[in-house]
Design goal:
This protein is mainly α. Among the domains are: 102 residues, Tetratricopeptide repeat domain (Serine Threonine Protein Phosphatase 5, Tetratricopeptide repeat); 136 residues, Alpha Horseshoe (Leucine-rich Repeat Variant). It contains 51 helices and no strands. This is Unc-45 myosin chaperone B.
């Protein structure tokens, strides 16, 4: 070990010889073995002097210093100052070191920023170096210190120079850097907005490059969030410099509305302008009364949005569009209409739409007016439906159907399809429009028109929904239509936009159980649909979701009460009938086929779509499908392997209330039996807890409560961080309430969950609180007849009494405690018996001599003796060893005379 005096003396010699490191080594060794406090203080002072000497040498070698070494020196001096807090030399050194580190940090950031710009603007620099520099600049801008240095060092003009190069990679780097600088900083965001200019930002977003348009959209969103209160920091005096942002926000809004209808804007830019309006104009919280932004947008931009809906891409002189533009516009129209608060506001919306339709008709572009109505029918349906009923509109549709131009026929057929979305209107078209659609279907040679006409027939044929008794067409007709749809769907020669309509047709036809059964047996057709769902054309998502809802029967089903059915029959009312192939066995088989064809990976891609396309209704449908797919525990591994666990998280956090509940339920099913590291990799696992906790509320059904408890149990058994997260989400009161539940499965699931949570400090503190019956409940649950419940309750008690000795004494306040404990120790189940004996050991080891004496004076000694003397057995070895350990502990406490005690086997 070494003599501390000798080590101290050796240290002194090394110090005098100038070998500081050797001196520190000797002093450190002496400190470890020195028992004398006075000498220890001397050795500590000597080592402190070494540290100070080392730091002084460090400053002498000024040219060789680096930031990392300064940090180390700062820590060394901190140690010295901790030992001698009144030493002025140490304190002064700390001050100087801190200032130098700060100066070097600032200088380093400044030089790095300038270096990045030099590389990016150097024409002769290689592409790889420029890409690295661009990424470094973006990363720097995401940190507040880096963003501020870029801003202060004339960074915005330099970024504008990058944009001016016209090179996509330079523009992207500049825009993303600006986004980082504007995030969460109101003053800087406003300054950058004024320096760059709204027009300039719009011109960047208008570029025909999807990535650049998306980056510019994100920049606008960052600015908007910072100016509207997303920045929660206190600025003090600086706050006075931040002017009112309302004028800037209004300028941005007007500029975005101008972009919507401008021919100079690319399709991608138009999509992003519509997305920004959709995200930021309608109220996010309906309780807020102010919907002035919506009213302003309707007055200044509704006609512009309608113009986008009315574009016919096949005609010349149209606005540049993507596959998704018109649907995004329809979704925006729907959000604006839903945000209106009273009848006069809704009447004004309808009047503007009617005025615009009349204007377009006057301009003799009937196909555009009908296309506008189609856009409204896909958005605010009531508005579109009202316009269809106006005089001359139906006649215009019929005239376009009979036109010799293919484009007119396409527009008309699509309008007919969208306008027959309600049962009553479908019935009208069955009487008046079926023959027209059939005629177009038979006569046209244009596949694109033919498929649309077929979809119209499919929609009309499915007007009865899944009611087997309300078939609109003759037996076998829907199957023939579906077969043709599948044929088009599987034909790669047909363009994506046209094949999309085949799925639209199947979305209607799969209301028929014969059709959905045939469809899921056609693996090629399924895979073709899934591939289309992954394509850039996201307008297909709703149709795919509808088809999957039908195939899995995951729509809401009304409960049929037999007495009411009989009453309906007696009064000659219509009674819905279930198709024979819509029974449970058929649904299970369809689910298996869908999983085999790769439905989960398709759903995972669909969930990532932009919110403007992936509406809340579509999200709800996807959540329902996921829940249906995860019904069978044996299928959940497949869902996890294809990314289903990750995909469910956003569905559980955003969307309709019903959709979030369905997604949370599916998450609970997966979380209950899966390894969390695999099912929800990385930090995502922490996002799973809130949806599961939401299912514990009393307004959820028993099955959802049970699955949530099982999911939380699995997560709680995985790591301390997850247990802490469960506690922070306020799950404990709900879990405890289900431990009192009369339902056996719920009570057991809640107790198992608590068993996995009791290692958490906060949970233990709840049991230690005075005046509560939590521990008493656990003791009583140990006395129940259900073995699963006993196992969980006894496990929780064993862990609690091991870590909190006070609970051993508190346990005895339950009248039946000794009887219940004896029953546990005599239990035929080895697991329960082992846990009971562990509780006994914890009580013997609790430092409560009276409690230990009471246990040994009871029949417990005889029970432990019998168990301890038993022959070793692999099945019960844990219990045997625990009993023998208890007896040894009793001997150590002097409660048993070793000479009078019978010899025992094993570890006696």
């Amino acid at each position: 070990m070494g003599d501390p005096v000798q080590l101290k003396d050796e240290g002194n010699k090394h110090f005098q010889a100038g070998d500081i490191d050797k001196a520190i080594e000797c002093y450190s060794s002496a400190i470890k073995v020195c028992p004398d406090k006075k000498m220890l203080a001397v050795i500590y002072r000597n080592r402190s002097a070494c540290y100070l000497k080392k730091v002084s040498h460090f400053f002498i070698k000024k040219n060789g210093t680096k930031l990392g070494k300064l940090d180390m020196a700062f820590k060394d001096v901190q140690r010295c100052a901790t030992l001698e807090p009144k030493n002025r030399t140490f304190l002064e050194t700390l001050r100087r070191l801190g200032a130098e580190i700060q100066a070097k940090t600032t200088f380093s950031t400044d030089s790095r920023v300038q270096n990045m710009f030099d590389i990016l603007l150097d024409e002769e620099m290689g592409k790889e170096n420029k890409e690295k520099a661009a990424n470094n600049l973006i990363v720097l801008a995401r940190e507040d210190a880096g963003a501020e240095r870029i801003f202060q060092n004339n960074g915005v003009p330099l970024l504008l120079n990058l944009i001016a190069t016209g090179k996509p990679e330079m523009i992207l780097a500049a825009v993303r850097t600006l986004s980082g600088m504007c995030t969460g900083h109101k003053a800087r965001a406003m300054a950058i907005l004024h320096m760059v200019g709204v027009d300039k930002l719009c011109s960047v977003m208008a570029i025909d490059d999807e990535e650049i348009a998306l980056a510019a959209c994100n920049l606008f969103q960052c600015i908007n969030d910072s100016l509207t209160g997303g920045d929660k920091r206190e600025y003090g005096k600086e706050e006075a410099l931040v002017l009112d942002a309302s004028k800037d926000l209004k300028t941005i809004l007007l500029s975005l509305l101008e972009m919507v209808a401008s021919k100079k804007v690319s399709g991608h830019g138009r999509d992003q302008a519509l997305n920004l309006l959709s995200k930021n104009v309608p109220r996010k919280i309906r309780k807020e009364k102010d919907n002035s932004r919506t009213l302003f947008t309707i007055d200044h931009g509704l006609k512009k949005i309608l113009k986008v809906c009315g574009q016919v891409p096949e005609l010349p002189d149209q606005l540049p569009l993507t596959e998704n533009t018109q649907l995004i516009a329809s979704v925006l129209l729907n959000k604006l209409y839903d945000d209106l608060t009273c009848d006069p506001e809704r009447a004004n919306f309808k009047d503007i739409c009617e005025e615009y339709i009349k204007y377009v008709c006057t301009a003799d572009v009937s196909n555009q007016s009908i296309n506008t109505i189609s856009g409204l029918l896909q958005g605010p349906f009531d508005v579109g439906n009202a316009l269809v009923g106006h005089q001359g509109i139906m006649e215009m549709m019929v005239a376009l159907c009979g036109s010799e131009r293919d484009v007119d026929q396409m527009v008309a057929v699509e309008a007919l399809i969208h306008s027959s979305s309600k049962m009553s209107r479908a019935s009208f078209f069955i009487t008046n429009g079926v023959s027209l659609l059939k005629d177009i279907y038979k006569k046209t040679k244009n596949e694109r028109i033919k498929i649309r006409a077929l979809v119209g027939l499919c929609k009309l044929g499915s007007a009865g929904g899944d009611d087997y008794s309300l078939r609109q067409f003759a037996e076998g007709s829907t199957e023939k239509l579906a077969k043709q749809c599948r044929k088009w769907l599987c034909n790669p020669q047909i363009d994506t936009k046209t094949r999309k309509w085949a799925i639209e047709g199947l979305a209607y036809l799969t209301n028929d159980a014969d059709v959905k059964d045939d469809f899921v047996e056609d693996e090629l057709a399924l895979k073709a649909m899934f591939e289309l769902a992954k394509s850039k054309d996201k307008t297909i998502l709703y149709a795919v979701a509808c088809t999957l809802i039908n195939c899995t029967n995951s729509y809401d089903k009304k409960e049929i009460i037999p007495e009411l059915v009989q009453l309906a029959k007696f009064s000659k009312q219509h009674v819905p009938e279930q198709h024979p192939k819509d029974k449970k066995d058929f649904i299970e088989q369809r689910v298996k086929r869908l999983l085999k064809a790769g439905v989960t990976s398709a759903l995972a891609v669909m969930v990532k779509a932009d919110n403007s396309i992936l509406t809340e209704q579509t999200k709800e449908m996807l959540a329902r499908v996921f829940l249906a797919l995860s019904e069978n525990p044996r299928d959940r591994g497949t869902i996890v392997a294809e990314g289903g666990g990750k995909a469910l998280i956003p569905l559980a956090l955003e969307g309709t209330e019903a959709g979030k509940v369905k997604a949370s339920h599916a998450l609970a099913k997966i979380a209950s039996i899966s390894n969390p590291e695999i099912a929800f990799p990385g930090e995502r696992v922490y996002e799973v807890i809130r949806p599961l906790v939401s299912l514990l509320h009393t307004d959820r059904d028993g099955k959802q409560n049970y699955e949530a408890l099982r999911g939380l149990t699995n997560l709680a058994g995985f790591s301390e961080k997850l247990r802490v997260k469960i506690v922070k989400e306020s799950a404990l009161p709900d879990i405890e309430s289900y431990m009192f539940e009369q339902h056996d499965q719920l009570r057991q699931a809640a107790t198992e969950c608590m068993c996995n949570l009791v290692t958490c400090k906060e949970v233990q503190e709840r049991f230690l609180q005075d005046g509560n019956d939590r521990l008493k409940l656990l003791v009583l649950l140990c006395g129940e007849d259900d073995e699963g419940l006993q196992t969980a309750a006894a496990g929780a008690l064993a862990m609690l009494t091991a870590v909190q000795k006070k609970l051993c004494t508190k346990l005895t306040t339950t009248l039946q405690w000794l009887e219940i404990l004896q029953r546990l120790c005599l239990h035929h189940n080895p697991q329960i018996q082992h846990r009971g004996i562990v509780i006994v050991y914890n009580m013997l080891n609790s430092d409560d001599s009276e409690l230990a004496k009471k246990l040994i004076e009871s029949e417990m000694l005889e029970i432990l003796s019998v168990i301890g003397k038993a022959e070793d057995s692999p099945k019960r070895q844990e219990a045997l060893d625990a009993a023998r350990t208890c007896l040894v502990k009793a001997m150590d406490l002097g409660l048993i005379n070793p000479h009078m005690f019978f010899p025992i086997h094993g570890n006696s």
